[in-house]
Amino acid sequence: MTAHEIDYKIYGEEMQFVEIELDPQESVVAEAGSFMMMDSGIKMDTIFGDGSGQTKGVLGKLFSAGKRLLTGESLFMTAFLNNDQGKKKVSFASPYPGKIIPIDLTNFNGKFVCQKDAFLCAAKGVSIGIEFSKKLGRGLFGGEGFIMQKLEGDGMAFMHAGGTVAKKELQAGETLKVDTGCIVGFSQTVNYDIEFVGGIKNTIFGGEGLFFATLQGPGTVYVQSLPFSRLAGRIIASLPRTGGKSKGEGSILGGIGDILDGDNRF
Predict the structure, then answer these.
(1) 32-54 pLDDT, tens per residue?
(2) Given CA atoms 38, 43, 46, 50 in this order, what sign does their dihedral have?
(3) In whole angstroms, what is the distance from residue 159 CA to residue 111 CA?
(4) Is the pTM of this model over 0.85?
């Protein structure tokens, strides 16, 4: 194996964290900001790129870091190395309510594709790169754009998803239609495309967007019930307006009630 062989345990229900056990000289890499706690004897180091060791030279490292910028991530990651004699533990937390999904890349022929913000941490040696869409329609309307993340190697990687997670095992030719924002990731054998919802009423009044994501097997698909964009949208919509009241708060008349009680300001 090229990646470090790590043990782990996931704690919690809605706000989970993963505790990773490192043998001496074993290491794990994580996105900046996901660290929660660690034992003494673990050395924390900021690294350029993904730390997979698969790129050599200055240009190779610059290319590796540049790929991360395209997926909206930082140029740097954080590596945690067990410098002590015995086993040590380090933990990483979910950024918002949801589930942590362990992915053993050896079960997916060394590659797994996921949405841009799904990656949480991985064993040192796992490569975190980019997956370009080869189809124009999928890139423009697929929710994730032209670029998704790909995890490559033979070690453990951990993804985070919002809300509850559904794991679907698709048979050859079997198709699953999913809201474009609800996709967490899928194995490389799955064919990913987009499909127009269709119908004037569905398009204008459906409120579900113009396109479905279609995932055709064979392969494994992970779907989340609460994408972060949906959660953020609900929070923004309920923020208080001028005067400290949220939309329709305290009245079944909503905005009309604000006008009647003189609280609406022009």
Answers:
(1) 889 999 999 999 998 876 666 55
(2) negative
(3) 14
(4) no
Residue 53: φ, ψ to 5°? 80, 10
pLDDT digits (tens, 9 = 90+) for 94-152: 888 899 999 999 999 999 999 888 899 999 889 888 876 655 444 454 445 457 888 99
The whole-angstrom separation of Cα 184 and Cα 113 is 9
Whether 91 and 18 have beta carbons less than 8 Å apart is answered as yes
- β-strand 211-216 against 175-179: which pairing, if any? antiparallel
> In the predicted model, what is the mean pLDDT of the chain?
78
214: burial class by Cβ within 10 Å (0-12, 13-18, 19+)? Answer: middle
3-state helix, strand, coil in the chain (%, to 5): 20, 40, 40
User: Would you tell me how many other CB atoms lie within 10 Å of the CB of residue 108?
Assistant: 20
The greatest distance separating any two alpha carbons of the chain, rounded to the nearest whole angstrom, comes to 72
Q: Which among 180, 185, 142 has a CA at the least distance from the CA of 167?
A: 185
> What residue ranges define each of the domains in the chain, with the CATH number in brackets?
7-238 (3.60.160.10)
Q: What is the pLDDT of residue 239?
A: 80
